[in-house]
Fold each of these.
Amino acid sequence: MLLQLTSKVTLNEYVKTIPLPKSGSDLPTGTKCLIAGWGLIDEDRATNKLFETRVSIYSRRKCTLFYPHLDWGMVCAGSFHQLKDSSQGDSGGPLVCNKVAQGIVSFGYDSPPGVYTRISNYLPWIRKIMKE
């Protein structure tokens, strides 16, 4: 879903724009990314603070072992050794790699990796909607 704002936004140190990925770009395995959200902590503790953590992109081949239905509109990321991942309540949040919005928190199991919507796969649709 894309949202159209009803008024202009004042950009400052707290409110900034972020670039979209280049058309059809894919993320190399191991790319370092940031995720952020207000989701559950430790699987059961709610928070009113915005948390962020670093994750890495998983290879598509490795990810299909966890998610056999993975398609080109999805990308996997997580920090397997440190068990860092998005959580329940983080859905819709950003996956930012190299200061570019590459994904949107989508779904996952109780441990990494998580699955993210791959923004570059939907650029034609995004551009079409923005023109309208």
Note: Residues 69 and 110 are 18 Å apart (CA to CA).
Amino acid sequence: MEDHFKEDICLDDICKFLGYSKYYVLHVFQEVMELSVHDFIVRRRLTEVKSLLLEDRLTIEEIAQSCGFKSDIALYYKAFKRIYSITPGQFKKMNTMKIEEQ
């Protein structure tokens, strides 16, 4: 999953690759990672988003799309805010100000 988190991954693809049922994959993944497969992928994508926001070369929407949030940018904003308690724009602005102060 680490190598493909930017792609449109679905549970069926993961199960087919691993050769296990959906129930088994969901159960074991949740038990080991303490996250659902979906939440893991979203969090991994958001980690990548944060690092790209610090680089300041792309727009927020371009970053979202490059990290796998292709179909619904609104979901990306909601997920970012839910996890980090600020919007991607606020995160980018805060970190741009920190860099300028140095």
Note: The mean pLDDT is 87.
